[in-house]
Structures are given as structure tokens and as C-alpha cells.
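Please fill in the sequence for the structure shown.

STRUCTURE ENCODING:
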């Protein structure tokens, strides 16, 4: 004779109860659904917070080619007598660390920025780099993505359209093969 014991609280309800209790404790009271959503910290916010305090290190690869590591994705830097060319902008909150790392490569200004694609960890620094004189170059699909609202696939983050200063000034047109095969910069 099997004794059947009925569970008063399912695993799902237990987890919900724990989460609700933790939210109640940390906020000092009940949150409205809008407040709860606003309080949720997504992966993008965590990445930006980390980038704000992480050091950026410059590594010389060969000759006048270097890479900056520590602001989201890596940033390639080509230093020449007339200035620096950056491949990707990193995360905007890393500006102080990026400025310091760039100055360690030489006194030349940043003259050009190439956006490989539109993701925030590659384009979030566009605005400050534009403000110091960088001309931004990208594929035309990058401008399209930066000019419209888009959602992150790695969290519940909505990216609003970028201001004009963040837009690339020059565009690379689609090539003939791009209709049949996705372009790596789209």
C-alpha cells in the first residue's frame, strides 16, 4: 500500500515565493509590475557596469597594429603619423580607460572608426569618438539597425534608435553576393 503524500507547495511555487520574498525584502515593500520590470537587471546592464570599472589593456600585435582589451569586444587600433584608426568603439562608459589606453599608444588623435556591426558592445562608444573627431565608417545595414528600435537576444533589453552623432558618416554598399548570403557586417 503506497502512501501518497500530497505536496502543499510545488517547486515552481516555492521558487516564486522565494523570489517574491527577496524582492519584498530588498525593496522594503511591494513593487508594481512596471517597477519590478525596471528593477530587473539584464545581462546588457551587467556588461555595461562591468565595463565602467574594468581596466582596458593595450597589446601591441605587430608594428603599428594593437588591440585594446577590456571594453566589451576587443578594439583593433592602427596607429599612423596622421592619426589612429579604430575597428569598433567598445562600450561608452569605458571612455576614461579607453582614452588612457589610446594615449599609451602615442599622441595621435583618433581620426577614423570602423563599425564591424551594430551590437552595443561595438557601437556604444560611437558618440564620444565622433565628438573627438573620428569619422565613422560602417556597412549600410549598420546604419539601418542603429536607426531603429531593436531588442537584445541576450536579455530583455530594448535598444532605442541612436542619436545622429552615433551614426556612421560613410557606408559600404552591399555587394552582389549579399542577396544570397548574409553579409558579416549586417
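FILLED IN BY: designer on duty
SEQUENCE:
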Amino acid at each position: 500500500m503506497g502512501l501518497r503524500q500530497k505536496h502543499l507547495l510545488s517547486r515552481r511555487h516555492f521558487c516564486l515565493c522565494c523570489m517574491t520574498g527577496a524582492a519584498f525584502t530588498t525593496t522594503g515593500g511591494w513593487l508594481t509590475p512596471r517597477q519590478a520590470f525596471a528593477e530587473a537587471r539584464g545581462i546588457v546592464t551587467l556588461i555595461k557596469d562591468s565595463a565602467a570599472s574594468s581596466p582596458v589593456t593595450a597589446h601591441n600585435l605587430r608594428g603599428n597594429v594593437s588591440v585594446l582589451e577590456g571594453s566589451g569586444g576587443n578594439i583593433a587600433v592602427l596607429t599612423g603619423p596622421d592619426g589612429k584608426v579604430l575597428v569598433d568603439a567598445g562600450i561608452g562608459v569605458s571612455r576614461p580607460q579607453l582614452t588612457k589606453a589610446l594615449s599609451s599608444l602615442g599622441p595621435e588623435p583618433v581620426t577614423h572608426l570602423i563599425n564591424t556591426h551594430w551590437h552595443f558592445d561595438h557601437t556604444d562608444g560611437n558618440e564620444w569618438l565622433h565628438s573627438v573627431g573620428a569619422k565613422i565608417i560602417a556597412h549600410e545595414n549598420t546604419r539601418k539597425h542603429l536607426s531603429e528600435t531593436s531588442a537584445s537576444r541576450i536579455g530583455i533589453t530594448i535598444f532605442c534608435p541612436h542619436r545622429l552623432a552615433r551614426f556612421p558618416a560613410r557606408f559600404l554598399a552591399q555587394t552582389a553576393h549579399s542577396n544570397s548570403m548574409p553579409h558579416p557586417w549586417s
